[in-house]
Amino acid sequence: MKKHPHTTVSNVRRRKRRSTQRASKVVPITDKQHNSKPIIQRTSSLNDQKQSILSTQNHQWTLPNTLKYHPNITEAFQFPFEKKINQWSNTDSLDIARYNHAASRLTNGKVLVTGGINVLSLNSAVLYDSSTGLWAATGNMNDARRYHTAPVLADGNVLVIGGYNGMELNTVELYNISTGLWTVTRNMTYARYAHTASVLTNGQVLVTGGLSGIFVNVSELYDPSIGAWTITGSLNYYRYTHTASVLTNGKVLVTGGYGNSVVLNSAELYDPSAGIWVTTGNLNYARAYHTATVLTSGKVLITGGFDTSYLNSAELYEPSTGLWSVTGNMSYVRGYHTASILTNGKVLVTGGTSISGALNSAELYDPSTGVWTTTANMSYARTYHTASVLTNGKALVTGGASVAALNSSELYQA
């Protein structure tokens, strides 16, 4: 069959329509050796993988649905299909709707969700198995709690710290990943919630800030080897609803939050070797209820939050200089959202709250360009939720609240 290189190949299109693939757009295949003039056009809905259609020595093309076309062309060329899924799918629901809970990705790949609130604070815990897509109940905590933290220790067990259940808590308990049971461990010196907890490179856990009826600037260290707490250096500023990030140099960067009823733009660094806090460059924007993500470059990305209104601004911290620089703004103002670094190095931001209420929007930050792009919306608007990147690269979003507490979970495929 002889066809002019500029002619649409109608028989390919006819045979394509009889295939099981649903046509969604017309994709031109061009000859780069002839000023990228179109050689054929064919319909395609291929958006699930990156492919190349190559001409072979006998000039036979094998299309993805096994149809074959024999053009009368002597030049070889290539046309790539770029992978672009970026979509959400629903997965199994939580046993109990909850928000202000904690989610910890375990060393075995499962996700442990603890506590939260649904009318009253919860002591229940559940495990998500990404291999089955199902939630299963595990041992209950000794104390119901919300606004707590739940870092994964070096031995794989989970340390649940503080929180609130009608009163501020200083209680701490350990989840045994092998048995699914909880044991109490030593209490903190100070009860607190809306604090942060960071696992240091030496395996100890640093707890900073929070509320305990009053603002707390005292920091404490938990040593898993002896199950005991010690007081360490105090923050320079009282703060809660702040962020804490372990940098690649082992120091901990704390940013923003509320302090003495004022939203802060200050940031400070904790040096584990000295046990003291020192101030570093101020944020460009004061913010609380924001997120902080350590990028693969070692820089820290701060997104959104709240000051006198919700924010869409983002900024980057450079550890080598201690300075902040603005980067691209998000498409939506938001606070109480999540930010997760994906396996491709991009950052996925989901949900949160704006002036109009809970959001279902999501967007991606590309560190190589400093630009945000919107991606598919979640099925449910949600705030006070959690997001965990699974070992398969998908992001699991869990619970939260909209008009009421949610039990739904969703998976994002990048």
From TrEMBL:
Occurrences of domain Attractin/MKLN-like beta-propeller (ranges): 86-313
Keywords recorded for this protein, A-Z: Kelch repeat, Repeat
Biased composition (Basic residues): 1-20
Chain intervals for the UniProt region annotation (Disordered): 1-27
Gene3D superfamilies referenced in this protein's UniProt entry, alphabetically: Galactose oxidase/kelch, beta-propeller, Kelch-type beta propeller
Record's keyword annotation contains Ion transport: no
InterPro entries per the UniProt record, alphabetical: Beta-prop_ATRN-MKLN-like, Gal_Oxase/kelch_b-propeller, Gal_Oxidase_central_sf, Kelch-typ_b-propeller, Kelch_1
Repeat in keyword set: yes
Protein name listed in UniProt: Attractin/MKLN-like beta-propeller domain-containing protein
Lineage: Eukaryota, Metazoa, Spiralia, Gnathifera, Rotifera
